[in-house]
Specification:
With 322 residues, the protein is mainly α. Helix content is 75%, strand content 0%. The longest helix is centred in the N-terminal third of the chain and has 35 residues. It starts with a helix and ends in a 6-residue tail after the last helix.
C-alpha cells in the first residue's frame, strides 16, 4: 500500500513537471491559472488542448501496455513475452498502413489499426485451436506465423506508397508518438482500456493460477477459457494504445519484468503497481521526446533505448531468466 502511495505521488509530480515543460515556456503560476480557466488565452489553449490530453493519453497508454505485458508474461510463463507474441502489434501496423494508403484520415487509421490487431489475434486463436499439442506453444507458433504474414503484407503495401508522402507517414507512424493526442482519443482509449483493465483485474486470481500451467485445471480453473479471455483482453489494451499512438516498444516487456524482480510477488498483488510504473516510465519518455530537441523524437526510440539499457544491466547482473 505504501509503495502504491509513493508511486502515485511520483506520477503526479512527473505529470506536473510535464505540464510545465515544452517549447512554449510557461511558469508554474501561469499553468495553474490556466488549469483554473484564467490567465491568457494562449496558455489556456496550450494546457487544455495540447498538454493535458497528451499527458492523460500517455498515462493511460503506459498503464495499459504494462498491464498487458504482465498478463502475457504470466500466461506464456515467459518473463520476456509481450504483445508481439500473438501478432497484435503486427496486425495493428498492417491495419494502419492500409488506412494510410487508402484513406489518409487520422480516424480511419486508428480504427483500421485497432481492427487489424484484433483480427490477427483472433486468427491466431483460431489457428492454435485447430492444431493438436501444447496449447501455449501452439499460440506462440501461430502468432509468429501470422506476424510474418502481416509483416509481409505490410511490406507489399509499402511498395505502392508514395515515397514522398505516404511512405514517410507510414514509417513515422510505426515509430510511435503522441503528438496527435486529443480529448476524443483520450476518451475512446480510456473506455477501451477500462473494459480490458477491469476484466483483467477481476480475473487476476485465475490468471495467477495459469502460471502453474495445465495443472491449474486441478485447482478448479477452466484453463483454456481463462487463457483465451485474458489474452483477448490484454490484446484489447495493446490494440487500443497502438491504434492512437503507433508502435510503443518495450513498455509491456520491461516494466512487468522489473516489477517482478523488485517485488517478487504474483500478478494478483502487483497489477496496480505495474500500471502506475508503466504510466511513469512512458510519461518520462514522452516528456523527453517532445523537449530534448527542436523536433519531436518518436517515442519508440526512447523507450527502446532505455528499455535496452535496463535489460542489458539486468542481464549482466544475472536477473534475466527465461
Amino acid at each position: 500500500m505504501k509503495s502504491k502511495f509513493w508511486l502515485l505521488l511520483i506520477l503526479i509530480i512527473v505529470a506536473a513537471c510535464s505540464l510545465c515543460m515544452g517549447r512554449y515556456g510557461s511558469s508554474i503560476s501561469e499553468i495553474w491559472n490556466a488549469l483554473l480557466l484564467s490567465g491568457d488565452e494562449i496558455t489556456k489553449s496550450l494546457v487544455w488542448n495540447l498538454r493535458l490530453p497528451r499527458i492523460l493519453l500517455v498515462c493511460i497508454s503506459g498503464a495499459a501496455l504494462a498491464i498487458s505485458g504482465i498478463v502475457y508474461q504470466t500466461v506464456f510463463q515467459n518473463p520476456l513475452a509481450s504483445g508481439d507474441v500473438i501478432g497484435a502489434s503486427s496486425g495493428c501496423s498492417l491495419g494502419a498502413t492500409f488506412a494510410i494508403l487508402m484513406f489518409s484520415n487520422a480516424w480511419a487509421t486508428e480504427l483500421s489499426s485497432f481492427i487489424g490487431g484484433m483480427i490477427i489475434v483472433l486468427l491466431t486463436f483460431f489457428l492454435a485451436s485447430h492444431v493438436r499439442g501444447n496449447r501455449i506453444l501452439n499460440l506462440v507458433v501461430a502468432g509468429l506465423v501470422l506476424q510474418a504474414v502481416a509483416n509481409a503484407l505490410m511490406m507489399m503495401l509499402k511498395l505502392y506508397a508514395d515515397p514522398l508522402t505516404q511512405l514517410a507517414e507510414i514509417e513515422y507512424w510505426l515509430m510511435g508518438g503522441f503528438s496527435d493526442a486529443s480529448w476524443q482519443s483520450v476518451i475512446i482509449t480510456m473506455i477501451l482500456c477500462m473494459v480490458g483493465g477491469l476484466g483483467l483485474y477481476l480475473l487476476r486470481w485465475q490468471i495467477q493460477l495459469l502460471s502453474f500451467g495445465e495443472e491449474a485445471s486441478t485447482l478448479g480453473v477452466s484453463v483454456k477459457t481463462i487463457r483465451w479471455i485474458s489474452l483477448l483482453l490484454a490484446t484489447l489494451l495493446v490494440a487500443s494504445v497502438i491504434s492512437v499512438a503507433g508502435i510503443v516498444s518495450w513498455v509491456s516487456l520491461l516494466i512487468p519484468h522489473v516489477i517482478r524482480i523488485a517485488y517478487k510477488q504474483p500478478i494478483s498483488k502487483t497489477m496496480g503497481i505495474t500500471a502506475i510504473c508503466g504510466a511513469i516510465f512512458l510519461l518520462v519518455c514522452d516528456t523527453l521526446a517532445r523537449t530534448l530537441l527542436t523536433i519531436e523524437i518518436p517515442i519508440s526510440i526512447l523507450t527502446s533505448l532505455f528499455g535496452g539499457i535496463a535489460l542489458i544491466i539486468l542481464f549482466l547482473k544475472g536477473r534475466v531468466r527465461l
